Amino acid sequence: xxxxxxxxxxxxxxxxxxxxxxxxxxxxxxxxxxxxxxxxxxxxxxxxxxxxxxxxxxxxxxxxxxxxxxxxxxxxxxxxxxxxxxxxxxxxxxxxxxxxxxxxxxxxxxxxxxxxxxxxxxxxxxxxxxxxxxxxxxxxxxxxxxxxxxxxxxxxxxxxxxxxxxxxxxxxxxxxxxxxxxxxxxxxxxxxxxxxxxxxxxxxxxxxxxxxxxxxxxxxxxxxxxxxxxxxxxxxxxxxxxxxxxxxxxxxxxxxxxxxxxxxxxxxxxxxxxxxxxxxxxxxxxxxxxxxxxxxxxxxxxxxxxxxxxxxxxxxxxxxxxxxxxxxxxxxxxxxxxxxxxxxxxxxxxxxxxxxxxxxxxxxxxxxxxxxxxxxxxxxxxxxxxx
Length: 387
Fold this sequence. Notes:
The structure is a single chain. The chain is an alpha+beta fold. The protein has 2 domains: 1-33; 116-386, no CATH class. Helix content is 26%, strand content 34%. It has 12 helices and 19 strands. It has helices at 2-27, 35-41, 102-108, 127-131, 140-150, 162-169, 222-231, 326-330, 349-352, 354-357, 365-368, 378-386, and strands at 48-49, 56-62, 65-71, 79-84, 116-126, 154-155, 176-181, 184-193, 196-203, 207-214, 243-250, 255-259, 270-274, 280-290, 296-297, 300-309, 312-324, 338-345, 375-376. The strands form 2 sheets. Strands 1, 2, 3, 4, 5, 6, 11, 16, 17 and 19 form a 10-stranded mixed sheet that branches. Strand 1 (48-49) and strand 2 form a beta hairpin. Helix 2 (35-41) packs antiparallel against helix 3 and helix 6 packs parallel to helix 12 (378-386). The longest helix is centred in the N-terminal third of the chain and has 26 residues, at 2-27. The protein is elongated and about 100 Å long.
């Protein structure tokens, strides 16, 4: 009798448990449940308005991370913040789409790690490529004419001084908007420079893809420069921007690391972020470009240098410069628009986490080295950006 009662009780408990789970999944689909709560429980590509007390204009939340877009205090800037959730790391394969489970329940109430911020501050045409024969061959006279014509559009060495960066980022004026593209939400910073847009899309459970969109600049050729030297006409002598600089700021407990291993075919290796205990948090996607027809090129570089204040390294501030090959862009086989993709992703722990390296990875010595003698604290660097 007692045995039958136990089996009956077990059956009742099982039915009740399944009913609660089924009802829970149904309840989360009701319209009165906040979208931000639903987003914490399931893989999604949704971008929604942020709360009134948030610093950002829009937010995207997935199991494992949160992305904020558009700084309310500086609404014309092209700004992004990325945060990894606290708790046990979960890879994309471990989280099932639209499934309420124990991880999802804890995720609903979970806090987030200190994060990183990413902001565009400079766009232009790389002077070295313009002078180095990439476009105009060895014709230095044409290069000089092009330099005079293009004026401020030509960008030389990027200044890593944070006061200069603060001044330059004020020249970037855009708006942060959310659009639907091919059935998905995307954040757009339109016209950050002539024929240049920034766009972001959420990769569910993995991170955020950042895309630089280059408009149609197919009117350029060397013949127009020759005509310019004769007639002074500037018609058709526009070159596509190919050099883009961002300010990367890490919250004080984070570190930027580098290893030669890459998850793709890039020769850049991988830059990734760890917490103060050396635990892997997220990685920077290596840049790659594609044209309208899907033609792909990895002829694009990403360099990272520490920011400086009064000639001294500023802790946790980095200047990230993405430079596309100008020759590839003006090649007649390249059809615009062209996108340059990068982003921030939480996958890769199995490659860059403790399981593989066993000890703190080696930091790229020339790019990221910081000594106690020349390191300013984060507060000093931040004040330089606010001047």
